[in-house]
Design a protein that fits this description.
alpha/beta, 7-stranded mixed β-sheet, binds flavin-adenine dinucleotide, binds iron/sulfur cluster
Length: 596
């Protein structure tokens, strides 16, 4: 079936003599949402994106079978993806400038199918960082990481927003679930989300479109968990299954490539920022997009101390340029946003813009990963296979710890992402034998395995931080980030519990345990970096107010995961977009009233 989608709109001419209503830095989930909301309010917006615009459909080739690719999807020789050992044994920067490899990527480039992301992930040689071990995954292209994200789209609840009230640790957010609920609803409706209602207070339901179906092994697990008071729910995917009003996107046809990791969706049923947000914003006539524009400083008016624009480098020509605006909206992703704020030093803001509290870069948090379980559903061995591939994900087991109970040893909770059934590549190639018998064995076992891995909340701590390393610069001469980030006792105890409960759930379902992973992966593995410019009511201990607006500089907003007060254990992208929508509504209102 050929699906005909509307090509991207023609970009508007960039005019750097104009003072825009707003400049948005970064075009991922957060920046795309800011561009969408602000332009829909009639504001003239300039969107600066460090990466280039790629022909993403040609890049992703979602319908390409492994045998249609000369290297079965692998990248050309000379490309190297960092391994777990490299992350753990060595210290960053992980890729020396004189490395023998032509290009070095983060570990995501090491997943099968790397040819489909080789132009999306950053080259670590050009983009170094220093400090403690950290697996930092970045995508510098129009749309950022949303081009290849895993699409698990979850809401937070008051267990997260009011976590301090619940267990005494850290800070509450300056908002409640009721403040953000209408914006979650808007994101659901505008972008489309598939899933199944469960009525859980700690994982509120979305306005779901048709859910994909769980397969036999997943249903077996779901049935076993119900008496334990736990749930295995179909993967809540930021994917439109019934369609949305957007000529750049198609609904999901379940065509298979979602099972190929890494890789996105070339008909854009899975949300990505360019087709979901940026192209429709361009169609309003209010958005000017400039790609290849690496922001390195938020400029300020010397008299007022307010932001008045952004200084950036043309990523291709390396020419330094400036753009002017009434408001600056930072959305470069959590860590890049912290870098930009800290780099923006002036006599008015000697510690970096918006940093009178000395909290920018601090309270950096994310999700720990590693513990999980793999099992075999024996009755599925040798069974006829259905069309089990071609869906955006398997299942999700929401948090069940420290809700009504109180666990000894650790605070907060974790959830599991998992899947069973037959994928594009058989998951049993280590079966014994050779020749015809081996092929039969592989076919018989393919589809009988099921696995799940945990995502746990890393507590926010002031001492977990990033700062500027003045001694190391990236390929554009901009000082890089230095990590000072470690897991603590809470994370280690939580990880132990994750391995125990993962095993116990599979056992309860009568699934034969093949392996249990207990080790923590390198910090950063979840690609869910959060915090660094947290929201709060007190300007002494927080960077932003409840509208992601700087306490110090009222025409400066930071609308990505930087603002999160804690990481919770749910994947963050849907929350990032709901918050950005709410803040940009507020921004437009305040600008209209002359308050910025
Ligand atoms: C493989 C993978 C799987 C994932 N799975 C999930 C999942 O299942 N669920 C989930 O919720 N999340 C998932 N994520 C995370 C998700 O992609 C991010 O939460 C989301 O993209 C964050 O949006 P953002 O706008 O903050 O950052 P990004 O999407 O990274 O966008 C930031 C943009 O800013 C640009 N930029 C950076 N610095 C500058 C600068 N100085 N000047 C100009 N532009 C700049 C970048 O080039 C980039 O385009 C996954 C990510 C990956 C890579
Ligand atoms: S399964 Fe659906 S969302 Fe995934 S690649 Fe195919 S069409 Fe896109």
């Amino acid at each position: 079936m050929t699906i005909v989608l509307t090509p991207p709109p023609e970009p508007k001419e960039v005019d750097l003599t104009e003072t825009y209503d707003a400049i948005v830095v970064g075009s991922g989930a957060a920046g795309g949402m800011a561009a969408h909301v602000l332009t829909s309010h009639g504001l003239k917006v300039l969107l600066l994106e460090a990466g280039k615009k790629i022909n993403v459909e040609a890049e992703l080739r979602s319908m390409q079978w492994p045998y249609d690719h000369p290297r079965r999807g692998d990248a050309p020789p000379g490309w190297h993806a960092l391994s777990l050992n490299e992350y753990n044994i060595r210290k960053p920067p992980y890729a020396a400038k004189n490395s023998a490899y032509k290009h070095v990527w983060s570990y995501v480039g090491g997943w099968g199918g790397s040819d489909y992301v080789k132009d999306i992930l950053v080259d670590e040689k050009e983009n170094p960082y220093t400090g403690t071990n950290y697996a930092w995954v970045r995508a510098r292209v129009l749309g950022g990481k949303t081009n290849i994200w895993g699409r698990l789209a979850l809401r937070l609840s008051d267990y997260d927003f009011k976590a301090k009230t619940h267990d005494g640790y850290g800070e509450d957010w300056p908002i409640s679930y009721s403040d953000i609920e209408p914006y979650y609803d808007r994101v659901d409706t505008y972008l489309g989300i598939s899933g199944h209602k469960e009525g859980l207070p700690h994982l509120p339901d979305s306005l779901f479109q048709r859910s994909h179906r769980m397969n036999e092994s997943e249903i077996k697990l779901r049935k076993a968990l119900l008496p334990m008071g736990r749930v295995a729910t179909p993967y809540r995917a930021g994917v439109t299954t019934d369609g949305v009003k957007n000529k750049y996107r198609s609904k999901c046809y379940g065509r298979g490539a979602c099972g190929r990791r890494p890789g996105g969706c070339d008909i854009h049923a899975a949300f990505d920022s360019p087709t979901g947000l940026i192209y429709p914003a361009m169609d309003t006539g209010n958005l000017t997009l400039r790609t290849n524009s690496t922001a390195y400083e938020i400029t300020v008016d010397k008299k007022t101390g307010k932001a008045n624009g952004v200084a950036f480098i043309d990523s291709q020509t390396h020419k330094a340029l400036e753009a002017k605006a009434k408001v600056v909206v930072v959305a470069a992703s959590t860590l890049e946003s912290a870098r930009l704020l800290l780099l923006s030093k002036s006599s008015q803001h000697p510690n970096g813009i918006g940093n009178s509290s000395n909290h920018v870069g601090h309270n950096f948090c994310e999700h720990l990963m590693g513990p999980g379980v793999t099992g075999l559903v024996k009755e599925l061995v040798g069974k006829e296979h259905g069309n089990e591939d071609g869906r955006p994900g398997g299942f999700y087991v929401p948090r069940f710890r420290n809700l009504k109970d109180k666990q000894p040893g650790f605070l907060r909770g974790y959830g599991f992402e998992g899947g069973g059934g037959k994928g594009i590549f058989p998951d049993s190639t280590d079966r014994p034998g050779f020749g015809k018998g081996y092929k039969k064995e592989v076919r018989d076992y393919a589809g009988a395995f099921i696995n799940m891995g945990g995502f746990g909340e890393v507590l926010p701590r002031y001492e977990n931080a990033v700062s500027i390393d003045p001694n190391v610069k990236d390929a554009w001469g901009i000082p890089v980030l230095k990590f000072d980030y470690n897991f603590g006792d809470n994370e280690k105890k939580m990880a132990e519990d994750m391995a125990v409960t993962a095993k116990e759930m599979f056992e309860a379902a009568g699934i034969e345990i093949i392996g249990v992973d207990r080790e923590l992966l390198t910090p950063g593995w979840s690609i869910h970096e959060l915090g660094t410019s947290r929201m709060g009511n007190d300007p002494k201990t927080s960077v932003l107010n409840q509208f992601q607006q700087s306490h110090d500089v009222k025409n400066l907003f930071v609308v990505d995961g930087s603002s999160h007060v804690n990481a919770s254990c749910q994947n963050p992208t849907w929350t990032i977009m709901a918050l950005a929508w709410r803040s940009c509504d507020h921004l437009a209102d305040e600008l209209r009233k002359g308050n910025l």
